[in-house]
Amino acid sequence: MKIKLNDISTLAPKKFNKEHTKKELVKIKFALDELQNLMYANGKHSLLIIIQGMDASGKDGVVRNVFNTMNPMGCRVMAFKEPSPLEMKHDFLWRIHRDVPEKGMIHIFNRSHYEDVLVQRVHKWADEKIIKQRMEHINNFEKLLMDTGTTVLKFYLHISEEEQLIRLQERLSDKTKMWKYNDNDIKERQFWKDYKKAYEDVFENCSEHSEWNIVPSDQNWYKEFVIAKKLVETLQDFKMEYPGLKAG
Predict the structure, then answer these.
(1) Residues of the chain with pLDDT > 70: what percent?
(2) Is 6 within the bounds of a domain?
(3) pLDDT per residue as tens digits for the range 128-147
(4) Is 137 within the bounds of a domain?
(5) Does 247 score more than 70 pLDDT?
């Protein structure tokens, strides 16, 4: 999957009207709620949603605004940050595999195993041989999930460098966002081009079993619409039915 991020706009297509799209999103979320309830009752499918993107691309906002109508009994969110000392003693997929969804469940990864072929590559904490090995392991891991009934949906939140700076600066002035501020976020901006190159390599080499969805993310209303719509389409493709009465 050859993708050049510079060739893809970070803005919504001009044909999309903000207010109309937001109204459509409300309808889609009602459908998503019903489909998730059906999936939980049906108990034959599992869905893993992977959300990746640059700092301030809106990963937390997606989790908060797309999944807020869903029943918490059938939906869980995992945020993967720096590995703990125990996790560092295992292979890089150990902490990931234990949190994949069981049948009937939707799990959302806010960052994921892809950090181990992005951050570590950009900062040269792992050499190219290890990165290539990890990509192969990721492909095999995702194939295992797909072969055993878990659908994997991957979203990259595509934000512009200019919009990222605006959002990072908001964290210094908006008291509701100050808790998100991290000095490292500004420092990481100097690696912007390196991260884009690393992501493009991921898109090319880790799309064998589940393709990446590149989501224009400068406008939150459009980003949330695209992701919610894709989720509904995916769940509809499962063609699920509610189970009947159990035999006594």
Answers:
(1) 99
(2) no
(3) 999 999 999 999 999 999 99
(4) yes
(5) no
Q: Rounded mean pLDDT of 86-109?
A: 97
Residue 96 tokens, joined: 């990931």
The answer as to whether 247 is a domain residue is no
What is the domain count for the chain? 1
Region at 46 (left for phi over 0; alpha for psi -120 to 50; beta for the rest): beta
pLDDT band at 246 (very low <50, low <70, confident <90, very high): confident
Domain limits at 68? 17-236
Is 188 within the bounds of a domain?
A: yes
CATH of the domain at 218: 3.40.50.300
- What pTM, to 2 d.p., does this model score? 0.95
* Alpha-carbon distances of 34 from 77, 195, 230, 235, rounded to whole Å: 19, 37, 15, 10
